[in-house]
Amino acid sequence: MQLTDHERAMLDGAEGRAKQKAMELLVRYAEALGAERFVDVTNVAGVPAQPTPFLAAYYKDFPGGQHAIFSHFDLDSDELVEMPHVVTRACHLQGGYDPDNWELLGASAEAAARGREGERYASERGIEILKTCTPYLVGNVPKRGEHCAWMESSAVVYCNAVLGARTNTEGRESTSAAMLTGKIPYWGLHVDECRRGTHRIDVEIEIDSVMDWGMLGYFVGDVVQERIPVLTGIAKRPDLTRYKHFGAAAASSGGVEMYHIVGITPEAPTVEDAFGGNAPVEVFRYDAAARRRTYEALNANATDPDVDYVMLGCPHASLEQIEEACRLLDGRRISPSCRLWIFTSRAVRRRADEAGLTDVIRKAGGHLLTDTCSAIGLAVPPGTKVAALDSAKQVHYLPAMTGIQAWFGSTADCIDAALTGRWRGALR
Amino acid sequence: MSVRDQHGASPTRTMLQERQEAERIVLRGRKVVGGCAEGEALVTRQTISGWGGVHAQSGTIIETRHELRGQSFKDKVLVFRGAKGSSGWSVVFHTARLAGSAPKALVFNEMTTKVALGAVVMRVPAVTGLDRDPLEIIETGDWVRVDGDAGTVEVVKRRVATEDRR
What we know:
The structure holds 2 protein chains of 2 kinds. Chain A is an alpha/beta fold.
């Protein structure tokens, strides 16, 4: 592959061992992809040096502490190196434990302390500790055309499709290496031609609610897998929350990293622009029957109507979504047989605190939590058997990871379940 | 040189070897990660979700509606369509390597950043872009040898491989 003088120098160790190891990893990765060169990235989102329970235990006896996890895992280096300051804008995505509520989430004091230590380690090296899967909700909004290296599939698809910035779905190792070097393989969605649509989805019914957008996303991901869908027939422009739920769902049932909505998203003023003059490989219809099938697939895992856990905030709730939950709670208390956890970012939580929303949720018997979610943190309330969720993504993952049942419905269905302890959701 | 000339073995063995020769299939593609490894194939036509779809410490597929649900890829040659889902794909397969539950090699059809990075940090031979669809040719239980550097996948069909080992 072709390297610039600067890239070659980093690979040769002119800028230290850590950058050398980062470049070695990036070269192996680029060669695996078949990329011919790197592109400069200015915005990197990952989880550098995060001490997960497994990694903390695994590297316990290795010399170097946090540096060991960063060297051996993040950079996949057999040699111990010291992590230097990052060279790009860099942020830390979700993971770990809510620093104020780790006990509720079932973490040990030791794990919580380890989390704080990991956070300090990253922060001291120039990484913004956003602790969210929705960096675009809390001030990290890349510009159109900006080359990025992001993890978190729901954020990646938002970055590409909604913002028109450019990133593949990167992993922990590649983002950690990119933060140190400002480089990522020039491949896939960094390249103009690779951003064009491949499959057309003719949407024949009105898509309005957040739940509608989640179901449409789940359908689209299932039929196109990791290809690029172009949606036609969308009359009403989605808001940020709807984009968030659509993309997260499409990136769970499939591997959608980019999509176009004709007349709405930035790279699709027309169908021709969206496809770049190519013909669609395949065309799918999303009609009332497809919507029903999607709803049934999302609810296939649940049979027991007695709900003992309601989780909202996947991807992390926006302030508007927290307001909506509070409005639906309407001053009532949740059922004694049910728990309500709502997940968001630290920044949104602070706004919710200031607006009195956190108190509303607390008085209703629920909790507003940050940094993580039930799937990422493998944290559900003790004894949970049946959950109710308003996120297609969370329904896709949580039952598989924890063995519980999960219902999918609207936020209103979920709050109703929290208040009554019963699932009464339906496709409306 | 025929097998018969080379070995002058008993008629039974020779016939077996001839059959094995006939059933030995070589697919040619390109290197993703170098090195050689062989083992029993575990095949799925479906894409695999890493984070949330695989239990890393045991190498078991856990995705609710996956055709391999409950099966482990530990020490198998994993033959699959490609990767999907969370960006935690590489972390899960990287963790599987540390836990000793990684597959021995990867053979896959569709290149993505997830599968490329996962293969790199798993440090197992990996090949893609094969001249024939490996999902049409390789079945679970077949014996497969992956030469990452040469970009080749050698397949011995299960029936013959079993007889040969007797």
